[in-house]
Design a protein that fits this description.
The protein is α/β, with parallel strands linked by helices. It folds into 3 domains: 66 residues; 56 residues, no CATH class; 175 residues, von Willebrand factor, type A domain (Rossmann fold). Helices cover 35% and strands 22% of the residues. The protein has 10 helices and 10 strands. The strands form 3 sheets. It has a 6-stranded mixed beta sheet, sandwiched between helices. Strands 1-2 form a two-stranded antiparallel sheet. Strands 3-4 form a two-stranded antiparallel ribbon. The radius of gyration is 28 Å and the shape is extended. The protein starts with a helix and ends with a helix. The relative contact order is 0.12.
Length: 366
């Protein structure tokens, strides 16, 4: 019976994941998920989860529609706009709890993202034991006392030897249950993600919200790939400053735009703290493509070519649509950095584009 329950539960979880995949684009645009981390449970509303079963009814109720009605007539036969109250059961929504790690896994499976390949001599793959179930044999140090107790209680009840007035439970050998595990391969290497975001006046609230959502899912995906990971956050207008995670996701600023200020701060950060032989470095810059001048855009490309790109796994530039920005910086990047394999660009116009943007950034698995 216990085995059957476990199989049914696993099957239910697979159905839940299937429903989440169907609405994945919608979940990616949920701003309230920002700030959640790996193991935190998230309530997800999922429509129409129902295990398959036979449903019996009266065969006389069916048939081909016929009668005196004409196309366009009211379904209830009345001329008013409102009909009688409904008599059928509604479509109920079930809320299920999944962790952010599970959502990140579903994201990777649905987008068919490859596992990221660490680089460098210090980046080796480590084996990690993950406890995932219960079995009947194992070392005493892994004995599951609660499951053992339940098995002994069930056995005594079935045998008729359990006395409620003298509830003594004595486990025997066959009652013992032990935690089981499976070996999971995960990159042991360290990784750092540097997020850079344009906070100038041309970046409105809608554009900043798109950036925050995209950065949140990038962070979730990379954390699922690496054991040790650091995230650094830079915001800029004409000047750049490092901020913490909370400030990055909540800050409101104004002013002009000088993208090179962020790249210079990023260069200093990487050179000072992250040796490229020991760290996997990911850089992401988000902007509406508006910059103070063409000369500054060219300086940005020089900074990337000479200082940043030789030392990083990937530089991702994500441009969000804005009615106030020129949107020209992505064209400059394409013109000057088209031959750089670790430069990837994407455009986001609405929240629906986040799905494809993530796929663009990580399909190569760099």
């Amino acid at each position: 019976m216990q085995l059957r329950i476990n199989k049914d539960h696993q099957r239910f979880r697979q159905i839940v994941k299937g429903k989440i995949r169907d609405d994945l684009r919608k979940f990616l645009s949920r701003g309230e998920l920002i700030g959640k981390e790996g193991k935190h449970l998230i309530s997800i509303p999922v429509r129409g989860i129902e295990l398959p079963h036979f449903r019996y009814g009266d065969n006389n109720d069916g048939g081909v529609g016929s009668g005196d009605a004409q196309p366009g007539d009211k379904a209830d036969g009345s001329d008013g706009d409102q009909g009688p109250g409904g008599t059928e059961a509604g479509q109920h929504i079930l809320e299920v709890e999944v962790s952010l790690d599970e959502l990140a896994d579903i994201l990777g499976e649905e987008l068919q993202l490859p596992r990221i390949k660490p680089k460098g001599k210090h980046q080796i793959t480590s084996e990690k034991d993950k406890y995932s179930g219960i079995r009947r044999a194992g070392p005493e140090s892994l004995r599951h006392f609660k499951r053992t107790f339940k098995a002994a209680l069930r056995r005594q009840i079935m045998a008729g030897t359990y006395d409620p007035d003298n509830p003594i439970i004595t486990p025997i050998r066959r009652d013992r249950r032990y935690r089981s595990w499976k070996t999971v391969l995960k990159p042991q290497s360290n990784a750092v993600i540097v997020y850079m975001m344009d906070m100038s006046g041309s970046m409105g609230d809608e554009q900043k919200e798109l950036v925050r959502l995209e950065a949140f899912w990038i962070d979730a995906w990379l954390r699922r790939n690496y054991e040790g990971i650091e995230s650094r956050y830079i915001v800029h207008d004409v000047r750049a400053a490092e901020v913490n995670r909370e400030t990055f996701f909540r800050i409101r600023e104004d002013g002009g735009t000088k993208i090179s200020s962020a790249f210079k701060l990023c260069r200093s950060m990487v050179e000072t703290h992250y040796n490229p032989e020991q760290w996997n470095v990911y850089l992401f810059h988000f902007s509406d493509g508006d910059n103070s001048s063409e000369s500054d855009s060219r300086e940005c490309c020089n900074l990337l070519t000479e200082n940043l790109l030789p030392n990083v796994n990937m530089f991702g530039y994500c441009q969000v649509a804005s009615a106030y920005g020129s949107g020209n910086f992505i064209n400059v990047v394409h013109e000057h950095l088209a031959d750089q394999e670790n430069v990837i660009t994407s455009r986001i116009n609405t929240k629906d584009d986040i799905y494809e943007s993530l796929k663009t950034f990580f399909t190569s698995g760099k």
